[in-house]
Amino acid sequence: MRFTPFFPVLTGFTTSGSAKLFGPVLAPVSGRTVLFGLLKKVNELSILCGVEACIIIYPENSAQPDIWPPGLRTRNVLGKFMSLPELERNKKMLDSEGFANQTLEKTQKILMKQIEKNQKKSGIFISDTYKNLECDTRDLNINEANNWKGFIEKRLNEVEQKLISIKIQAEEETENGIEAVNGIANLGHVADV
Fold this sequence. Notes:
GO molecular function, one term: protein dimerization activity
Oligomer: single chain
Radius of gyration: 34 Å
Keywords: DNA-binding, Nucleus, Transcription, Transcription regulation
Pfam family, one: SRF-TF
Structural class: mainly alpha
Low-confidence stretches: 1-26
Number of helices: 5
Number of strands: 4
Protein name: Agamous-like mads-box protein agl80-like
Domain MADS-box: 37-71
Distance between the termini: 91 Å
Helix content: 55-70%
Mean pLDDT: 74
Shape: elongated
Strand content: 5-15%
């Protein structure tokens, strides 16, 4: 995919009579669209984020890379990039496999959160159903029973964590209260002197 600035010219269309205009044959639309879309995105990033950016594209059948913006700006951007330590340069770089792995991890986290939400809703629904209707829990199938068990265990764990945090907070308040009382007592001794 070679980038050459051009203005689209229709080939072989007639104007007011029989005079024909001929223009250059244009590159395939899909390649141009992708390239100009990429150039537009990089330009927007550069403007909106206030960073310098450049694009270097190595076409399949060409020894020369396509560079944007041409000239000194690209050299300045590359110079700054190459002056960074190698660790800093490679910090956010991804190849196709790395990008796919990162996307997969994010998607799996979202999926796990959604599964937790669904299990919580299911547990609440089952609890409410069996509590309000006074149904027999032996009517649950294995999946419902496991979901309910997980829901109850999670709720118990949350309650235990809350109790621990309340205990710690109460102990801290008690210690602060004792320190405050001691401080007031010390002030009384100072006033006596």
